[in-house]
Amino acid sequence: MQVDGLAIALRPRPMAEAADLGAQLVRSHARSVWRTFLPVYIVTVLLALCTVEIAGWLPSLLIFWLKPWFDRSLLFVHSRAVFGQETRWSDLWQNRRAVWGGQLLRTLLWRRFSPWRSFTQAIDQLEGQRGSARRKRRTQLLRGRRGAATGMQMVFANVEMALDICLLSLLFWFAPEGSAKDLFGWLTQSDVPLQSLLTAGAYALVVGVLEPFYVAAGFAMYLNRRVELEAWDIEQEFRRGFR
To answer: What is the pLDDT of residue 37?
Structure first.
């Protein structure tokens, strides 16, 4: 696989422009993204919703906590899309141990709260760095770029919150006149299973739509940083990720 086989034009860009390139990556390979990511996401969300009988807040918490794990499937698709490769469900299934099981504890514990998670994700998943080599690599990539990476994550977090509120506000728009107060009281009762399923379902829908773009934006920023640091020589460390 040659670097000149890249399906996107790599050149040094401002980090914000590089993040926009991620949206282009999702749009141009939407079929690969959705047919590969959605089966994993839908099954996991349905299992999470089943926990509503344990606690009303648990489904939303599980979806929130598992986002870095969902991101691993998305990065697998995006890393192939960069080289113009289509990804099918069978491709993800064949690589399921590396994608889903790779560094599972690290993915779900301390990386969950990383303010630049999608920007540095490729270091773990594609480059396969370990120990001190990983720390040095992360420091190198983040040097002078922490603000941009954190800012991108904050933008997506705020968009996610805004869309979630917008979805729930539809209930008030279509509710009978004068019932807004009662509806708000019902929505704030965490011990009502239907209410918990409704709020968790709205959150799951927003996450499912935004997460491919979030991962793609971070990956595009990562590629841009590689171009800045290493010019065009990115082939060798990517080989493992694109098999």
So the answer is: 94
User: Phi and psi (nearest 5°) for 39?
Assistant: -55, -45
- Nearest to 195, CA basis, from 49, 48, 45, 66: 49
Cα dist from 136 to 25, 114, 120, 141, whole Å: 28, 16, 12, 9
SS3 84: coil
Give yes or no for a contact between 203 and 63, defined as CB atoms under 8 angstroms apart: yes
Res 58 pLDDT > 90:
yes
Q: Which amino acid is at 161?
A: M
Contact 134, 124 (CB under 8 A): yes
3-state helix, strand, coil in the chain (%, to 5): 75, 0, 25
Which value, to the nearest 10 degrees, does the dihedral of the CA atoms of residues 212, 218, 219, 225 take? Answer: 170
